[in-house]
Amino acid sequence: xxxxxxxxxxxxxxxxxxxxxxxxxxxxxxxxxxxxxxxxxxxxxxxxxxxxxxxxxxxxxxxxxxxxxxxxxxxxxxxxxxxxxxxxxxxxxxxxxxxxxxxxxxxxxxxxxxxxxxxxxxxxxxxxxxxxxxxxxxxxxxxxxxxxxxxxxxxxxxxxxxxxxxxxxxxxxxxxxxxxxxxxxxxxxxxxxxxxxxxxxxxxxxxxxxxxxxxxxxxxxxxxxxxxxxxxxxxxxxxxxxxxxxxxxxxxxxxxxxxxxxxxxxxxxxxxxxxxxxxxxxxxxxxxxxxxxxxxxxxxxxxxxxxxxxxxxxxxxxxxxxxxxxxxxxxxxxxxxxxxxxxxxxxxxxxxxxxxxxxxxxxxxxxxxxxxxxxxx
Length: 377
Fold this sequence. Notes:
The protein has helices spanning about 1-10, 10-25, 30-45, 90-95, 110-130, 155-160, 210-220, 260-275, 300-315, 330-335, 365-375, and strands at about 50-55, 60-70, 75-80, 100, 105, 135-140, 165-170, 180-185, 185-195, 200, 230-240, 245, 250-260, 285-290, 320-325, 340, 350, 355-360. By secondary structure, the protein is α+β, with helices and mostly antiparallel strands. About 35% of the residues lie in helices and about 25% in strands. It is built from eleven helices and 18 strands. Helix 1 crosses helix 11 (about 365-375) and helix 2 crosses helix 5. It has two domains: about 1-185 and about 295-375, 3-Layer(aba) Sandwich (Aminopeptidase); about 185-290, Alpha-Beta Plaits. The protein has a six-stranded mixed β-sheet, with helices on both faces. Strands 4-5-18-17 form a four-stranded antiparallel β-sheet, with helices on one face.
């Protein structure tokens, strides 16, 4: 493992240049043109070590599968990443890529362009040190993770079914860079309330307020949260009515649901579908569902983490694990029963925020960790 660490330290400037290129090639989720341009850049930067395949996931969106040269083909190890970021086009002008205070800064640097550069560098470390891996090694980069992976999920799941293990290049947890061995499942629901409009001054009693009924439903939704079970129900947005002098005919509530166990997803689904209006003159309708199943910590995931922990210890890193309420594409692969290790990307802070940055002195050990995992799996 020390040879991988030496490679990463000796080539730090080149790795930073690659990270800069990826960050400065903006790829917001809402611009397929720029996401595709970013994927083309990845193809260019790996053309000497990988075979590229574009896989259609929607009318014009594509995922990129890079199959690296040199694997013997005895099973597949799959790395997962995404091309899209939450940052709108032009953000690079006010948040330019820069190196300062021991960090690299810029939109998408942590989530997750540095993670992609680190994995590519890990494969280069294997090539440079003459290590031949036992498996086919692939990197799947999807175009729509930040918006829920609606279109790419089927591609991710298909690749995972052919894989012995999945390595997710999302950033680690905190400035310690803890790996993620469990994630909550994520659900999005909308509760629609239909009332009866009336003039608030002239004919108040004949109206049935959808806004008032929605407020009652918010209180009911809040009661479904059970922190002991790791289950949270957040009615985050409520909208309704037209004017203050009109009894509201319509309202809606946008609800975020997080579940630690798949069994709780079925429970909360039943509870939401059974919502009824407390005012018999109103009607309640619920749409939506679970977007990502939970990533539960299985024995296979635990063994994979212990392998990573031993590799890290060999290069002087005390690697820890963590659980998180956020979802990733690793949720999909873990739910299929494929051992999945998440948070293997860069170490830093500020994802989706103006202080998004990564620690420069943690790049090398992440390269070595990923190279070691690919070698041993």
